[in-house]
Design brief:
CATH class of one domain: Mainly Beta
Strand order of the largest sheet: 1-10-8-4-5-6
CATH superfamily of one domain: Cupredoxins -  blue copper proteins
Radius of gyration: 15 Å
CATH architecture of one domain: Sandwich
Shape: globular
CATH topology of one domain: Immunoglobulin-like
Strand content: 25-35%
Distance between the termini: 40 Å
Largest sheet: 6 strands, mixed
């Protein structure tokens, strides 16, 4: 175990971020599902206002592996207004060896290679450390890692949120992030 970022271990006390119970993880998801407006046909979630809270989930149980979820959508396009104060949160619900996840916001579009972190260029937002995987196989008794990052959506452009862990983005763990 390397500790901090880039480790391969389940969530435990002292990992460096929040630890949520299953009930708290469900509240996190429900809160995220009430912010922004989802368009299932366009696979997008649009946020308005000057303060935006995005509660993204990495590999929510019942969804395909190596994906992000928001509003029940997989890898949706996230749209935020220019100038908004964005609270970008991530909850890792995945389980097993090498299933730590994070999200980096970059201008580099897909496709991504196996070692995507080597090709993404400088992040547009300071990256958060990788979140360790859940503490046990049983989703209802496990504990989960959560962390967030705040930033101002100061430059209108098209970006991508990407999990830079080896092979994750290559397998499809990314989505479009638009500031307009």
């Amino acid at each position: 175990m390397m500790g901090g970022a880039m480790g391969n271990y389940p969530v435990s006390a002292g990992w460096g971020g929040k630890i949520l119970s299953y009930a708290e993880a469900q509240s996190y998801i429900q809160y995220g599902d009430t912010h922004g407006v989802a368009d299932a046909k366009a696979n997008s979630v649009t946020f308005t206002g000057s303060d935006v809270v995005i509660n993204l989930v990495a590999v929510q149980p019942g969804y395909q592996d190596q994906t992000f979820e928001l509003h029940g959508l997989t890898n949706p396009t996230i749209i935020v207004p220019h100038g908004a104060n964005v609270q970008f949160n991530l909850l890792n619900m995945d389980y097993g060896n090498n299933m730590e996840h994070t999200a980096v916001i970059t201008t580099t579009p897909p496709p991504y290679p196996y070692m995507s972190m080597m090709y993404l260029g400088p992040p547009q937002v300071p990256p958060m450390p990788e979140l360790p995987w859940r503490s046990g196989d049983d989703a209802k008794t496990a504990q989960y890692a959560a962390l967030g990052e705040s930033f101002i959506a100061s430059a209108s452009d098209e970006y991508w949120y990407v999990c830079p862990a080896p092979q994750h983005a290559e397998e499809g763990m990314y989505g479009k992030f638009i500031v307009h």
